[in-house]
Amino acid sequence: MPTAVPSHHRESMAKLHRAAEPDVLKPLLERARLTPDSRERVMDHALALLADLRAAQNRGWVNQFLQEYRLNSSEGVALLSLAEAFLRVPDPETADLLIADKIGDADWKAHSGKSNSVLVNSATWGLMLGRALVGDEKTGVLRRLISRAGEPFVRQAVGAAMKRMGEVFVMGRTIDEAMKRMKKPENKGFTASFDMLGEAARTKADAERYFQAYFEAIRAVGRDPKAGHSISVKLSALHPRYEVAQYDRCVPELTDMLAQLASESAAQGIPLTVDAEESERLEMSLDIIGSVARRPELRGWNGFGMAVQAYGKRARAVIGWADDLGRPMHVRLVKGAYWDSEIKRTQVEGLADYPLFTRKAATDVSYLACARDMLAAKNIVPAFASHNALTVATILDWAGDSRDFEFQRLHGMGEGLYERLVNEQGYHCRIYAPVGGHRDLLAYLVRRLLENGANSSFVHQLADEQLSEAELLADPVEKIAAVGGTRHPSIPLPVDLFGAWKNSGGIDLAERTILAETAAAIAASPPPARGRGPGGGPTLTTSEPAVEAGGPPPAPSRTREGVASAIDRASAAFPGWAATPLATRAAILERLADLLEENRIELMALAVKEAFKTIPDALGEVREAADFCRYYALQARTGLAPITLPGPTGERNELRMEGRGVWATIAPWNFPLAIFLGQTAAALVAGNAVVAKPAPQTPEIARAAVRLAHQAGVPEDALVLVTGGPEVGAALTSDHRIAGVAFTGSTPTAKKIAAALLEGNDRPLVPLIAETGGINAMIVDSTALPEQVVADVLTSAFRSAGQRCSALRLLLLQEEIAEGVIEMLRGAMELLILGDPADPRTDIGPVIDQAAYDKLMAYRDSAKAQWIKTVPVPATGLFVPPTMIRIDRPEDLTREWFGPILHVATWKAGTLAETVARVNAKGFGLTMGLHSRIARSAELVEAEARVGNLYINRSMIGAVVGSQPFGGEGLSGTGPKAGGPHYLHRFCAERAVSVDTTSAGGNATLLSLDEGGI
Predict the structure, then answer these.
(1) Is the Cβ–Cβ distance between 607 and 695 less than 8 Å?
(2) In this structure, which CATH number among 3.20.20.220, 3.40.50.620, 3.30.200.20, 3.40.50.12780 belongs to the domain 8-37+190-483?
(3) Per the count of CB atoms within 10 A, which of 29, 293, 783, 905 is most buried?
(4) What does the radius of gyration of the chain's CA atoms come to, in whole angstroms?
(5) Does domain 513-526+560-772+984-992 have CATH number 3.40.120.10?
(6) Partners of 434 in the β-ladder
(7) What angle do the packed helices 151-169 and 61-68 form, to 10 degrees?
């Protein structure tokens, strides 16, 4: 569908999106600045509002909660953590573990009876009861009393406390209940915007349920249109694939659904507001909102609206866009709800700059500038969502006598701020009111508490008696002007994330234009000389030389003599390369990293067309290769320099790390650039010459990598490429001149290499660094958030067609939640798109070759009776359907199946340690995952798991160089870990030199000492 964002607005937003913070803030500072006269008026009004707010601190349950349980206290954190998970835990055993974990160490007794709120004190009493039973106290009347009542009594007490918290933040479990509650005296004069708690949908069923809930809520509110209530909707709740890569599918479907909801709202005569989402969805949401706003059937209905997040650098431009729609638009201005996740995503993706402001005061400045624009706009009906007395007072001053706008606050927050304005001065305030069951509410509740309880939040600051009124009401414009609008010093740009080495640059594939340009450039790149079509079939076959370097390749040959010739050349080059200063070798690696990024599209295209990587995976491949080069350059400079060792006077002792000779590096096809170059770069920077062998399926990307390495300054004979199959690898590893082997691949092949390195009595003992596969398990208990589990399982098991050594092979679900999680997984799997990896819409491409396809399909067919779910695939090509297979017990999976096949088994509550031991018993030790909200369970798994990489409450793939060093143990590898601080040493010979410095002329140093200060 055509874009609904006019070109001049789109250009403006593009310029602002990741612009430098000072540049974005400069015009905002001028727009938000108060004159001295207005500042005086605003302060007077803000002080009055502050007095009302403080008076209400003794009335509002949540205000008193925040006073009693600060979020920077152990009790506050424990309570939030308990609230986030407790009500979704179905089994008593895990519930007791969660209670013990969260409240067992906290000092609840110190809070007993301290609050003016009966609700706070009753919640504290419930928590204190729990502490008495599950904590370390062994004596006491209270413990004896509770022990008689038993653990069910504690669960009931804690459950009651959690439900009380839920009742404060949820307006009602149903829309009818919520509307009834709005009629209570405390809400007199206020209207509501009901949010049906539609978090992001994971399945079609989720989306359909949320759509129906919104539709029914609109009709329910429409039964009493004079009450003035409205409905808020989240687009991400209406479509499970609301992603830029799925634009052509999701935007038309969402536009149609939103139009239906808008038409019903118009028919019922009530307002409808589209909530804000993460910044990566902004342009999509504007296209959807703009298309609906222009629908002819909605002309004459003035109730359509949208939310704008002031923490975004594009916020002011979005307001300009909304004003230019040519129809009245309700705009709700909010500070923003996804700040921390936006910061992390930008860092993880290695993007140029942040899409939002990094200082709270900068967001306040943006909010005020946007508010001023909204008050002056022709077509905007403003709504200002704020709990900040200074912000409210400023808006009141700018608005003058006007009442053509409204304020908004969260249900359960900000009591006291608006009551006088509404009931005595005729202003309008709407309460943003969540509606839904308490179990569904909790993730939302915790997010709101964290958002409003953070140290920089006005609500939290208000509860801090240490802060003066002047500090509370300090002018954000002056604060930001004083620092020149600069970024927060503790939030570095992504490129500087790691400090000592440069983070690799990413491509913002969540920007539709950039994604399209990237895909077009990849499509336009020539196919590899030895390439295959998108389904895995051959497109071109050429003769393949066994030995290559810079310049023209030698005649095709797969003979042992050809490999020997390559080793001859590398052996001859070794002394000169080893004598090259360490700093020079490190600098060459850094130049290579730069060249990788300069040639990123060519390399990505090779990864897509030769290794069938999807576009995001191809980008990750180039980034990881660059990260290896820069990280190993740093590690070489800091870890391979000579070390002076202690000893007696008159003696010099030194330890040197030097190259061993010629290394063979043998890389797999699943990471044909990152692993190929990572192993090779490590060997080179340590001072070794290298004969590098890629997998036979992916020679072209290896050729490109070697060409760039030579261009960066590696001598052509110090890095020689050999290509071919197992016979070439065997010839390479059996040559006695090879001083070490770095191998990534299967466990059987690693064992063959290890055996070959021991053959012959005259062969030196040489190191083998092997990283192999694993039967990687993820353990999920009943405290885990199912939506998060499903997202991480899909990523871990099926991304890259399951062809990662770290991929999830065995999902172990606690019995009580197994069927629910499986059902959600089934629905989520239905949405996976298999196809051409060069197509941005594709989630999963083909497997690497016919042999892999045949092996996986034969196994899959043999287990057909145990299928839980499989999905359709394209009619042609080497596409293995993502398949979920049920097994009776973990022991039934005895080998690694290297593809998109996930096995599922269950475990009993209370047997976590035994379950980990059963996984350990398989002998593999690469990756393991755990999803749990119980910290002590995480500690147990951390202590007991025999794996190289343990991932807790996240996906199990995508280890980052320098942050998550990667490699396994047991049947999964030898170590040391790639991308870690100990890796380079394994490529070196350690040589100690001891020199007697007194052998000629005596100990001059000792003899020349002064009198030591006397």
Answers:
(1) no
(2) 3.20.20.220
(3) 783
(4) 32
(5) no
(6) 195
(7) 120
Position 137 confidence tier, pLDDT thresholds 50, 70, 90: very low
- Are 848 and 803 in contact, with CB atoms under 8 Å apart? yes
**Where in the chain is CATH 3.20.20.220?**
8-37+190-483
Q: How far apart are CA 589 and CA 687, in angstroms?
A: 12
For residue 76 the two structure tokens come to 């506050």
C-alpha count within 13 angstroms, C-beta hemisphere, residue 997: 14
Cα atoms in the 13 Å half-sphere on the side-chain side of 258: 32
User: How many C-beta atoms surround the C-beta of residue 819 within 10 A?
Assistant: 11
Do 576 and 563 form a contact (C-beta atoms < 8 A)?
no
Rounded to whole angstroms, the Cα distance separating 857 from 861 reads 6
344, 491 Cβ separation under 8 angstroms: no
Query: For 822, what's the count of Cα atoms within 13 Å in the CB-facing half-sphere?
Result: 22
Query: And the tokens for 376?
Result: 């002056």
Helix, strand, coil percentages (3-state) for the chain, rounded to 5, are 50, 15, 35
Question: Is pLDDT larger for residue 755 or for residue 561?
Answer: 755
Which helix (H) or strand (E) segment is 792 a member of? Answer: helix 786-798
| DSSP codes of every residue in 215-233 | HHHHHHHHTSGGG--EEEE
Cβ contacts of 796 within 8 Å, gap of 6 or more: 778, 806, 807, 808, 929, 955, 956, 957
Strands in 949-952's sheet, in edge-to-edge order, are: 867-870, 883-886, 901-907, 808-814, 776-780, 927-931, 949-952
The Cα–Cα gap between 99 and 115 comes to: 23
Residue 713: both structure tokens together: 């300054």
Parallel, antiparallel or unpaired: strands 927-931 and 776-780: parallel
Instruction: Report the chain's mean pLDDT, rounded to a whole number.
Output: 89
User: What are the start and end residues of each CATH 3.40.605.10 domain in the chain?
Assistant: 513-526+560-772+984-992
Chain CA centroid to CA 598, Å: 26
Contact between 534 and 522 (Cβ < 8 Å): no
d(CA 801, CA 793): 13
Per the document, the length of the chain is 1014
Question: pTM for the complete prediction?
Answer: 0.93
Residue 221: φ, ψ to 5°: -65, -35
Alpha carbons 574 and 738: distance in angstroms, whole number: 12
Contact in structure between 379 and 327 (CB atoms under 8 Å):
yes
Within 10 A of 305 (CB to CB), how many other CB atoms are there?
A: 24
Cα dihedral value 159, 164, 170, 174, nearest 10: 70
The DSSP output letter for 236 is G
Contacts of 471 (CB under 8 A, 6+ apart): 461
- List where CATH 3.40.309.10 sits in the chain: 777-972
What CATH number has the domain spanning 777-972? Answer: 3.40.309.10
* Angle at CA of residue 877, ends 873 and 879, nearest 5°: 45
Cβ(641)–Cβ(522) below 8 Å: no
Model confidence at 53, pLDDT cuts 50, 70, 90, reads confident
Residue type at position 934: I
Q: Lowest-pLDDT range, 89-98, 123-132, 566-575, 947-956?
A: 123-132
User: Is 50 exceeded by the pLDDT of residue 533?
Assistant: yes
- β-strand partners of 305: 273, 330
Active site residues: 771, 805
Q: Which residues of 89-120 are buried (b: 16+ CB within 10 A; e: fewer)?
A: bebebbbbbbbbbbbbebebeebeeebebebb
Give alpha helix (H) positions in 350-497. Answer: 360-376, 389-399, 419-425, 438-453, 458-462, 469-472, 476-482
Residue 315 · residue 335 · CB < 8 Å: no
Q: Which two tokens stand for residue 505?
A: 């640059």
pLDDT digits (tens, 9 = 90+) for 391-449: 999 999 999 999 999 999 988 777 889 999 999 999 999 999 999 887 776 666 665 56
